[in-house]
Amino acid sequence: MKAFERFAGLTAAAFATVLALPAGAHHSTAAFDSTRVVKIEGTITQFRWINPHASIKIDGTTAGDDPDGVWTVEMTAPNVLINEGWTRTALKVGDKVTMYVNPLRTKVTLNDGSTGGLYVGVVLADGRTLGRTDGQGAGSDR
What domain range is 58 assigned to? Predict the structure, then answer.
């Protein structure tokens, strides 16, 4: 009987591990180039403080070969952002900010026509900073 219980326990553990794999893949940042940081100066057009990821839309300009226009910036979960000093009212539509993002590895536009990026840091309208605004990528501290 003990052998059967051990087998059942191992089977349950293996099953739970397999079920957890898609969740880990969903939260991967592999699509973003953590070796590059794009600076976007612009206006907030949307700020969503929701699980599993907060997100920002910013309409702005960049330097170099990176596209101007609307960027959709994926963030981490709100409970993680709170530890960085974020609040659900930190950004408002119309705020002028400087956003730092890791761009997508491939230059594709998202379904809504925007360019995608992963949040690294922001300089808010009042001059406060959240996240990294030193030009280092998110991959260096996550």
Answer: 38-140
